[in-house]
Design a protein that fits this description.
Order of helices and strands: H
Helix content: 25-40%
Mean pLDDT: 77
Number of strands: 0
Radius of gyration: 14 Å
C-alpha cells in the first residue's frame, strides 16, 4: 500500500482513501456502461 499522503495524521493509506472517494462517485452514477475500459486508463 502507498502510505504517501498530504495529511499529517491520517490513519488510512492514500490508496484506501481514494478508493472510498471513487466508491462514493460510482454510487452516484445512474449507470455504468457494459463496455470494458482499457487498462491504460487506470495507469
Amino acid at each position: 500500500m502507498d502510505w504517501n499522503n498530504d495529511a499529517l495524521y491520517n490513519a488510512l493509506p492514500v490508496t484506501l482513501e481514494y478508493a472510498k472517494v471513487l466508491a462514493r462517485m460510482v454510487k452516484r452514477m445512474d449507470r455504468l456502461g457494459t463496455t470494458p475500459y482499457q487498462f491504460r486508463f487506470f495507469m
